[in-house]
Write a structure and sequence with these properties.
The complex is a heterodimer of chains A (539) and B (360). Chain A has 539 residues and is mainly alpha-helical. Among the domains of chain A are: 82 residues, no CATH class; 208 residues, no CATH class. Chain A is built from 22 helices and 7 strands. In chain A, strand 1 and strand 2 form a beta hairpin. In chain A, helix 1 runs antiparallel to helix 4, helix 12 crosses helix 21 and helix 21 crosses helix 22. In chain B, helix 2 runs parallel beside helix 7, helix 5 packs antiparallel against helix 10 and helix 12 packs antiparallel against helix 13. Chain B has one domain. Helix content of chain B is 69%, strand content 2%. Chain B is mainly α. A two-stranded antiparallel sheet of chain B has the order 1-4. In chain B, strands 2-3 form a two-stranded antiparallel ribbon. The chains are: A mainly alpha (539), B mainly alpha (360). At the A-B interface, helix 15, helix 20 and helix 22 of A face helix 5, helix 6, helix 11 and helix 13 of B.
């Protein structure tokens, strides 16, 4: 029965019993299954004092069934049957309660309210219960559970808790949990009466980024003791420097994530506009189609949301790619060499696509679900945590870029694409079917737009107007980076994203965007061919 | 004065129609009693007045696109700036008749808890100052933007995208409340102009006449440019810019002059539009609006000037009709127009009747 609790963890739980009820500590508590049963029975007594003793006994019984009992008791779900005096956990149902025995953990079916008697708790008991549950969590075998148990104790520590933690610290093996406990103990030491303890704690905490530390140090800075005041001032300065640094890192991360969105949206355009010289104003709508494909696939497989995204990526590529090839064959093919006309015609197509989506799916935004593995965040330290969906989008963007780069540089299709874009007549003379290459290139660029749509569906609204929000940004990225240069698009997108996010704190989101636009307009005047102009490109 | 219309059959017809309309429509609206078969409702007068303002805007676009080859996707911005200048004047005429009844501040400023009218609103209570601004603000923006762009020889598609970015940036800016132009809602709830109520029939008719006269004058001015020697250089720039430069013309100066003039015309169109529709908001800056007006010109026929007027009337009439009768069809129809006209009607409707006459 005790096998799952290592001998090491026995101590703190036992100590808790001591601290909670010193009176009880004199008698060695019985240990094991019998002790548990006895303690549970004692819970049914009338007096709160007796019940406190019972709880303490329960905790020191070391039984694995203790935790659910304590939690049930805290949530007012612990009862005993009036007839047989069996202690049960009751879950409220439509008529009465569904009850489970505490000792054998077997379901006893339903019981009406009148058949049960609640085991009541008062505030003091609640406190004891909470501390008990936390202490039990400290002895959990999983380090994550222990860590969160320690974290929950911030600001709620009393002397009893300190004793538990100090004791537990000796036996703790996980470094993260140890660190957390140490911080907690040092924070507690800050309020100590002993000067040396305080100074030691201040020194130790000068590296901690925990918000509580700062609050406490702010208070200490006004201390009458010169040395303490100076030490905490120094520590605060150090901490604030660290925080400012991490705030910058965070902004850079947001910038990278915005940049990767821009790159994803623009990279398809870098192919159609940059390599082929076609102005495709319907590019935004091809992104939108990708996002709607994700939505439709989620509707088709609602029970596999996590999988749906993986299915959506190739599907969106095919859908947008097919629409792109259709556009190329039907319209753009007739307009090569007339870029302004292409612009107008593709704009017309974008209006038609928008209205089509609006007619089929309604003008309202659709919600695309985020799979489990993309939600949540990666906590690096208390001042810096990165959300998974943004992290994944950065990685996804780099992956798409790498694949596209390889396709253009290493495959025979890529070779033909480059040949046709550099010298169409010569390429045809060498036996390349230029019009087929055009269609495939346009399909490739459009398909990438569809993939971008899958990614964007995870972070923005999916609606008929979403394409319009990205088209101007995409063109800006491509023009800024240098037309016909994939690297330019990547670097242009990331630098615009980062610049935007670093301006946001003092300029506000909208003004930052305006400033970036104005900057690009001015930049293009200076360098009309962008950051990385392509040499010898045939216009 | 009419030498410039020699050989311009479309222009002659347009001016004739405008003269007739200026005489006939006021009579039909004000003199012919309501209910009579020939009565023209004030609603129709205002609608026609709005189309006339759009037509002037289309002429301005045709001048730079049709004749000079610059596809500006930002002319909506100049139009809207002119409109805002007019809107600011009208806003300050409201006085204490606003919802909050504040005699000095427009409603939205009261709403934002502003103490006083910001500096850039100073002077707009004078009609003539506002009218100068109607021309000056769009003209100045076009001048600065054009001076930068043309000197560094940004051309073709790049220039189009830059103009689009310009109007997009302005749209974002005007959506901000802190800009002091009414934010999302823009300027509206106007009461009167030069002391005449905007609701009265005679003011509406006067605005219609003003729009018709402005269109006629704008048309003549553009026509005068087109038939002059300057016009010949402009067309040459469109066809082979480099060669014109090598001959010794200052291409960037010529482009800048025409572009700025066109922006001023667009601003005047905006100023005529606002009192007739009674509102100006940041939506006018949206890139969609600017591209839409390019298609008016494309449908009517580029480099004809009267084709632009024709296109503006046809597209806007269809829009008024379709958005009322079948709103979901409108974008399909507009999209199809874009595609079909560029594919099958490169010279627009004007090109149907005769061979490219104005290409010289």
């Amino acid at each position: 029965m005790l096998s799952f609790i290592t001998k090491n963890r026995f101590l703190p739980v036992w100590l808790l019993g001591l601290c909670l009820l010193p009176a009880l500590a004199s008698a060695t508590p019985p240990v094991g299954s019998d002790a548990f049963a006895q303690a549970v029975e004692r819970l049914q007594v009338k007096s709160y004092k007796e019940r406190e003793a019972a709880v303490a006994a329960l905790i020191s019984s070391q039984d694995e069934r203790v935790k659910p009992v304590l939690e049930a008791m805290l949530n007012a779900r612990l009862f005993y049957t009036k007839k047989d005096k069996i202690t049960v956990i009751g879950i409220k149902t439509k008529d009465g309660f569904s009850i489970t025995g505490v000792l054998d953990q077997k379901s006893l079916g339903n019981a009406s309210k009148s058949q049960l008697k609640k085991i009541k708790v008062n505030n003091k008991l609640r406190r004891i219960l909470r501390a008990g549950i936390a202490a039990l969590a400290l002895s959990d075998p999983a380090p994550e559970v222990r860590l969160s148990a320690v974290k929950q104790m911030y600001g709620k520590l009393d002397n009893a808790g300190i004793q538990i933690l100090t004791a537990h610290y000796e036996t703790e093996t996980d470094s993260k949990v140890r660190e957390e406990i140490q911080t907690l103990l040092h924070i507690h030491d800050l309020s100590s009466d002993d000067r040396n303890t305080v100074l030691k704690a201040v020194a130790a905490l000068s590296k901690s980024l925990h918000p509580e530390v700062r609050n406490k140090l702010e208070l200490l800075k006004d201390s009458t003791d010169q040395e303490i005041s100076a030490a905490s001032g120094d520590a605060l300065k150090h901490i604030e420097g660290q925080l400012a640094f991490y705030a910058k890192v965070k902004t850079a991360f947001f910038g990278l994530s915005l940049g990767s969105v821009l790159v994803l949206a623009a990279i398809g355009l870098a192919i159609t506009f940059g390599v082929m010289g076609v102005i495709n104003m319907a590019h935004g709508e091809l992104i939108m189609l990708g996002a709607y494909t994700t939505y439709v696939i989620q509707q088709l497989m609602p029970q596999y949301i996590g999988m749906s995204l993986l299915v959506a990526i190739p599907t969106a590529f095919l859908v947008s790619g097919a629409v792109g090839i259709l556009i190329e064959r039907l319209v753009i093919r007739h307009l090569y060499g007339r870029p302004l006309e292409t612009l107008l015609a593709t704009f017309g197509i974008s209006l038609i696509l928008q209205q089509t989506v609006r007619t089929i799916f309604s003008p309202l935004n659709r919600s695309v679900e985020t799979p489990q593995w993309m939600s949540g965040f990666l906590e690096i330290n208390p001042a810096l945590s990165l959300t998974y969906n943004r992290l994944y989008i950065i990685l996804f963007c780099l992956l798409v870029f790498a694949v596209l780069f390889l396709v253009i540089k290493k495959t025979s299709l890529g070779l033909s694409v480059r040949a046709v874009s550099q010298n169409r007549a010569m390429a045809r003379a060498m036996g390349i079917r230029a019009s087929r290459v055009d269609a495939l290139t346009f399909g490739l660029g459009s398909g990438i737009a569809g993939i971008a749509g899958v990614a964007l569906s995870q972070i923005t609204n999916v609606g008929p107007n979403m394409g319009q929000d990205y088209i101007i940004d995409s063109f800006m990225v491509v023009v800024f980076g240098g037309v016909g240069n994939l690297w330019g698009t990547l670097i242009g997108g990331f630098s615009l994203g980062i610049a935007n996010k670093f301006m946001e704190p003092w300029a506000g989101a909208v003004l930052a965007k305006i400033l970036v636009l104005v900057f690009i307009i001015l930049f293009i005047q200076k360098r009309p061919r962008g950051l990385f102009p392509q040499k010898g490109r045939v216009n | 004065m009419f030498y410039m219309l020699k050989g311009d059959r479309g222009g002659q017809a347009l001016l004739l129609l405008l003269s007739i309309a200026v005489v006939l429509i006021p009579v039909l609206n004000l003199v012919v009693p309501e209910g009579h078969a020939l009565h023209v409702s004030t609603f129709t007068v205002t609608l026609l007045g709005k189309y006339l303002a759009f037509a002037l805007l289309a002429v301005a676009v045709d001048l730079v696109w049709g004749y000079m080859g610059i596809l500006s996707l930002g002319h909506g911005a100049f139009f809207a700036l002119g409109g805002y200048a007019m809107g600011m004047y009208l806003m300050l005429q409201i006085g204490d008749r606003g919802v909050y009844g504040n005699p000095d501040l427009p409603d939205f400023m009261v709403f934002l808890n502003w103490e006083e009218v910001p500096w850039f609103w100073q002077g707009f209570d004078s009609f003539w100052f506002a009218m100068i601004m109607v021309a000056l603000v769009p003209g100045l923006l076009a001048f600065v933007f054009g001076a930068l762009a043309f000197r560094s020889r940004v051309t073709g598609v790049y220039l189009s995208i830059m103009t689009q970015a310009l109007t997009y940036a302005l749209m974002l800016a005007f959506f901000r409340n802190e800009m002091g132009f009414g934010g999302n809602n823009g300027l509206t709830d106007f009461k009167d102009i030069l002391g005449f109520s905007l609701q009265s029939d005679s003011t509406r008719v006067a605005l219609f006449i003003a729009s018709a006269v402005a269109l006629a004058l704008g048309y003549l001015a553009c026509r005068a440019i087109v038939v002059s020697r300057l016009g010949k250089v402009v067309v040459a720039i469109r066809d082979t810019e480099d060669r014109v430069r090598f001959i010794g013309y200052r291409v960037d100066h010529i482009k800048l002059a025409i572009f700025t003039f066109s922006a001023v015309l667009a601003g005047i169109a905006g100023a005529l539009y606002v009192p007739q529709v009674g509102i100006i908001n940041p939506g006018e800056f949206s890139p969609l609006r600017s591209i839409e007006l390019v298609v008016w010109v494309a449908i009517g026929g580029r480099a004809t000037l009267y084709g632009a007027v024709l296109g503006a009337f046809i597209v806007n009439y269809s829009k008024t009709y379709l958005t009322g009768a079948a709103p979901e069809v409108w974008l399909f129809a507009l999209g199809a127009l874009f595609v079909l006209v560029t594919l099958y009607l490169p010279n627009g409707l004007a090109g149907l009747s005769k061979k490219k006459e104005a290409a010289v």
